[in-house]
Amino acid sequence: MENLRRLLFALSVFVLAALLFAWWRHGREGYGVLNLLKSEKPGPTALTPPQNRKSRQMNCPY
To answer: Bigger pLDDT: 35 or 58?
Structure first.
């Protein structure tokens, strides 16, 4: 019985975290995990590189 209680608690924490993430991500632009889970394909603008890379500013070879 103790294992069932722990399993249900862990499952409820995971579901709560997923719901909070979905609520937080709702108004944001771009392709995210929720789009991936819905099996949506990313658009051409979703895969653009970042505009400001710190590694290029510091002359880093990576």
So the answer is: 35
